[in-house]
Amino acid sequence: MGTVEPLEYYRRFLKENCRPDGRELGEFRTTTVNIGSITTADGSALVKLGNTTVICGVKAELAAPAVDSANKGYIVPNVELPSLCAERFRSGPPGEEAQAASQFIADVIENSQMIVKEDLCIANGKLAWVLYCDIICLDYDGNLLDASVFALLAALKNVHLPLVTINEETGLSEVNLKQKNPLIIRKHPVATSFAIFDDTLLIVDPTAEEEDLATGTVTIVTDEEGRLCSVHKPGGSPLTGAKLQDCITRAITRHKEVKKLIDKVIKSITPK
């Protein structure tokens, strides 16, 4: 890059409406999804956004529902950023960014109602499913949130749960592994993230370098009906209403692209 400082270098490109990696400002990196790759999980997906690589494994377990939510199961998302995925992360307990990402995913599940916790209840007050959703970043090059939401959705679409009944006489649960049903996914949330440059310019799907140089970021989550599930804006440059509307419009288009990718991969592995 020579002696040009990184921000100046970027500004030269942005003036020409393109980015150092050749993308236009509103263009995502090449996106791929594979599902069912972790055989030990009840559902899994691997998503790549350019170099950013995230895997999600869902493990289903049985538990008693909470006393105050007798008719609800549980969804427990957890985002991990191991030190292997980027030099910026250290080994040890989850850092700030991993915790913030886990909270963001929990909010997306709640706000979008992608899975309704009542659907996870097997017997009121007695038995319910717990879905542990572990999202692990294998390679970090920006835009963790979009990749994580995508991997979560694709993994959940891949989950099949065995039929569980409670034996009236013994009161014990009986699991029928021969009869499995897909999870009921009620909404399909998709995240679209932007980096804000010099307080005004928006670029979609930022790389790690772009995130570092940006004056802020914003993530828009929409569902298949174009409904806004959440706007996640951790500080940084404020956005005008018009700019936010631009982001929402772009997010709705992105939703269609992601949904198409998921449908295609599910179709390819469904037994004829």
Automatic annotation (TrEMBL):
Residues making up the signal peptide according to the UniProt record: none
Coiled-coil blocks: none
GO molecular function, one term: mRNA 3'-UTR AU-rich region binding
Exoribonuclease phosphorolytic domain ranges (all copies): 27-162, 189-252
Pfam families: RNase_PH, RNase_PH_C
A biological process from GO: exonucleolytic trimming to generate mature 3'-end of 5.8S rRNA from tricistronic rRNA transcript (SSU-rRNA, 5.8S rRNA, LSU-rRNA)
Annotated localization: Cytoplasm; Nucleus, Nucleolus
Keywords annotated in UniProt: Acetylation, Cytoplasm, Exosome, Nucleus, RNA-binding, rRNA processing
One cellular-component annotation, GO: nucleolus
InterPro entries tied to this protein: ExoRNase_PH_dom1, ExoRNase_PH_dom2, ExoRNase_PH_dom2_sf, Exosome_comp_Rrp42_subfam, PNPase/RNase_PH_dom_sf, Ribosomal_Su5_D2-typ_SF, Rrp43
Domain of life: Eukaryota
Family statement: Belongs to the RNase PH family.
The protein's name: Exosome complex component RRP43
Source organism: Ficedula albicollis (Collared flycatcher)
